[in-house]
């Protein structure tokens, strides 16, 4: 009974703070910021990859970003993203690419604001420091995608060598698509840990952020599955929004995962408040 009471108290605290602190509006802000930041980030990352000689980056980036999205949501967006990324560009250091990096960093800032509210902390770092950190996140994400792109390009060669040297591996060599899902999922988990750990003001331990991360991952799987099922069986978006259907679907999908993401931060904050209250009573 004690655990049930504690769970109810934590959930009431998390959901109550989410509602009273404009969580629904923050989710809208985060969803729109994510959509606006997505194309600029991929453009910047592809331009940097091309500058460094990694011309196969665009296809890998699309897989890494969209492989974990439901097919009904990902296919139309991924197709447009691929069209954008395959446009030939000139010099890497152009005004458009610099602006792309700036707009991509705005998505990081939206994450920061959302988590600061969820964790109930006031930002003490300067504007310059916050913006530099956001640019660092964009650059690190780009270099991570670039490294994975190179690994996936080398993967077929390594697989052929392994199959030739170890015949018993042959039945397992057709699982490259599975590895793409595994890598994309790993990128999401690592990204969530980094975002919760470093973006909000203040300091947290890994144990302080794990419950919210687990909640976010489970919630994303459940939410995207339900929304994809709805689109497949009951959706009237195509008839209602015509050519805007794909963008409306993406906005609503990003809104759903933004709500779940913010609730993950709220859950972490509520658990921490409960532990601190128990510690005060115990002392």
TrEMBL record:
Membrane topology: Multi-pass membrane protein
Assigned GO CC terms: plasma membrane
Signal peptide limits: none
Principal cellular location given in the protein's record: membrane
Domain of life (superkingdom): Bacteria
PANTHER family: INNER MEMBRANE PROTEIN YHJD, UPF0761 MEMBRANE PROTEIN YIHY
InterPro entries assigned to the protein according to its UniProt record, in alphabetical order: Virul_fac_BrkB
Record's protein name: Ribonuclease BN
Annotated localization: Cell membrane
Organism for this UniProt entry: Aquibium oceanicum
């Amino acid at each position: 009974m004690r655990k049930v009471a504690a769970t109810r108290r934590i959930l009431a605290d998390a959901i109550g703070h989410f509602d009273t602190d404009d969580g629904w509006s923050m989710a809208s802000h985060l969803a729109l910021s994510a959509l606006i930041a997505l194309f600029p980030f991929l453009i910047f990352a592809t331009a940097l990859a091309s500058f460094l000689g990694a011309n196969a980056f665009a296809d890998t980036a699309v897989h890494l970003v969209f492989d974990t999205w439901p097919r009904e949501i990902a296919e139309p967006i991924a197709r447009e993203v691929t069209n954008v990324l395959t446009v030939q560009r000139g010099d890497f250091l152009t005004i458009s690419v610099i602006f792309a990096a700036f707009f991509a960093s705005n998505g990081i800032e939206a994450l920061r604001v959302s988590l600061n509210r969820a964790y109930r902390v006031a930002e003490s770092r300067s504007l310059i420091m916050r913006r530099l950190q956001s640019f660092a996140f964009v650059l690190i994400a780009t270099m991570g995608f670039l490294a994975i792109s190179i690994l996936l390009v080398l993967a077929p060669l390594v697989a052929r060598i392994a199959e030739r040297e170890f015949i018993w591996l042959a039945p397992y060599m057709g699982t490259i698509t599975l590895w793409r899902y595994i890598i994309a999922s790993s990128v999401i988990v690592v990204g969530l840990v980094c975002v919760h750990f470093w973006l909000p003001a203040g300091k947290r331990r890994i144990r302080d952020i794990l419950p919210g991360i687990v909640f976010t991952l489970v919630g994303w799987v459940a939410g995207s599955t339900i929304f994809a099922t709805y689109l497949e069986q009951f959706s009237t978006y195509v008839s209602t929004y015509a050519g805007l259907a794909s963008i409306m679907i993406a906005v609503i999908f990003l809104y759903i995962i933004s709500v779940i993401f913010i609730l993950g931060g709220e859950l972490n904050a509520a658990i921490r408040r409960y532990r601190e209250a128990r510690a005060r009573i115990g002392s």
